[in-house]
Amino acid sequence: MADSRTRDDGGVAEVADALRSKPGASEVRSALERILASRCFQQAGRASDFLRFVVEQTLAGGGQRLKGYTIGVEVFGRPADFDAQSDALVRVEAGRLRRRLVEYYAGDGVADPVRIELPRGTYAVEYRFACPDEEVAPAVPPAPVVEAAPRSFPWRSLVLMLGVLLVGAGVVINWQRAELEEVERTLAQLDEPLRTEWPRIVVVPFENLSADVALDALAASMTEEIMLRLDELDLFVIASQESWYAPSEQTNLDAEAAGGYVLTGSVRGTGDQARITARLIEAETGAQLWTAAYDEPAALDRLPALQELVAHNVVAIAAPYGPIFEAELARARRSVHAPKLRDCLATYHEYRRRVTQAGYQETLECLQNVSARQPEVAPVWSGLAMLYVDEYSSSFGRPGDEALQAARQATAKALAIDRDDFLANMALARVQFFAGDPAFRDSLERTIALRPNSSQALGQAGFLLVISGDADEGLALAEQARALTKGPLSFYHLTHAANYLRERRFGDALASAASVDGQTWVFAQAMLAAAAAHSGRYDVARDAAQRIRELYPAFETDAMEGFERWHFDPDLHDALVSGLRAAGLEVGRSRAGLSGG
Prior knowledge:
Blueprint: H1 2-8, H2 12-20, H3 25-36, H4 45-59, H5 68-74, H6 89-106, E1 114-117, E2 126-129, H7 132-135, H8 153-189, H9 192-195, E3 200-203, E4 207-208, H10 214-230, E5 238-240, H11 255-258, E6 260-270, E7 273-282, E8 288-297, H12 303-318, H13 323-333, H14 341-354, H15 357-373, H16 378-394, H17 402-417, H18 422-434, H19 440-450, H20 455-467, H21 471-484, H22 490-502, H23 506-514, H24 522-534, H25 538-551, H26 555-565, H27 570-582
Parallel strand pairs: 3-5, 3-6, 4-6
Antiparallel strand pairs: 1-2, 6-7, 7-8
């Protein structure tokens, strides 16, 4: 009877029976590896660790026993007294993981034969074979060509190419609306200091302002690209998809719902051209902080590059020294008596821009204040570690190796809380560099891998490599940093100044050193004084030398010990010391003098 039914219905019963069976463990693990190797998960260390853990636990039969406490301790390194009820870390990360899985199956994984899902309300994964209609998303049929409007033809050709994207984007948007209620419930359970810890951007889906349906897919894919790129900026902002609206719905957001900032955008087609606009709004005031428009040819092979350009620029406005940074810095200065971590991060980046003793002290006091209230937050300790490294390398504050030891301890605390904390990994690289540990190069690579588009990571890595003698790799990283930032280029110019001084190209060294915005930065003034003296510009050299004495009265006494801490390449060291002496500063003559020779 069953056989007859199978033959008569064309195999439907066989398909149904197959779908009712479960994939084997090897098939699930193969599906897991495909997911973790995808674009959605390549830079998502936390989500990858989370998914691998719950998959293996589920395959081992322990899925239903998975709790927030177990995941917090085993995956995220929380201490044994971790309270999953009051600390929403695991719930928030579970929401992010679900988002990434939806994005994966709407894109790279659309044809995967095995689906892995993390249902809401549990930490046990479910896995199944994909249904036949899931394996290949149907394309939207092309609209008939209307001869009266030949100029719109390029957009018609987009329908076939972007149909899958449109279907996938629709899945993501519908899922996000269902997820919104859970996210809001989670946020409502958090204490106020944690809720407002990071400035959040609400990204409203880009709107298609034209009548051509092909642009719906372009608008949706543009939104997704921006969301993925913003989600990488854990150091300074977290992009949030908490509010999604269809183009026809109202998008009025109050300041509390937006968490600070709202990004909106639109797409329209004009013949064979595409115009994409984006704007950033401060939710509390309604002020427009940034806007940009892009007019590009609508050729299919140009669209990925266009999306990359827009996403890159949007990320730049959220990164340090963009309009969000300036708004956050102003807010931080108003919160000096009750600072939050986000305030400390704003003053930290401002300190790195100006490199002043006052900026150092302001940021140090802010982070120490927050660390007393929130000792289990990794960026608090990694921020302190970066400051302690500066204290050691600049020869102010604690004597000897005390500051470096404090930096090492703060770095260890940050990494114990979150081994993927970006600033903690950068601090580790700097601690290793100043300790003379060659492993600093591996730590630099890991830091850059965590944030491949961070101009801060690339710039600092390039500088350390150049001054220690690896000019080729260091300058290449400096160039990448320059291409990625719209902010100050002090590290870029200083890196080149150091390299030119090492190569005894003194005219070029002077030009680069003069381009550094470093009136309050002793090291920058030392580079300027040395380069100017070697170039015969003794007026500039004397002015820089006088500036050094004002900033650091003990410089001439402490300089040689300070230079040793920096592990300069020998050629750079000798050119710097001889140039400073020529500028009128009484410092050691050469490395031989350090040992009494």
